[in-house]
Predict the structure.
Amino acid sequence: MLSTDATLWPMIAHAALVFFLYWLLSRKRYLAVRAGSAEAGHFRESREEPPESLAVHNNLKNQFELPVLFYAACLVLYVSTADNGGTVALAWIFVLSRYAHSYVHLTSNRLRYRRPIFMAGFFAVMAMWVWLAVWLALN
């Protein structure tokens, strides 16, 4: 059995991405207000996102959809000691897919590239849950 601490590092790496995206969103919004293309009050009510920060805003929302299942899987694998080299590798595949997905989303935003990257992460998290179910059934 792999040391369960290895399961925590992909979660930390994903949290780093989320913190970066919050910083980037804050910076883009600040610059939009400063340039006059948005008003600070827009952000108080979440009424409208300026074009300068819309992609970052949307990408940040993506980090709280499928990743919720990722965090749940990692934590359950961790506390049940069902994690192993395979589940840690799947967790890293997921996190790397989130970094790649964010890069594409914030640059070209081409769905042609975003979708397969998303699907790689999706299948990685799904495989983590499948492994957990198999492990629980056998133990």
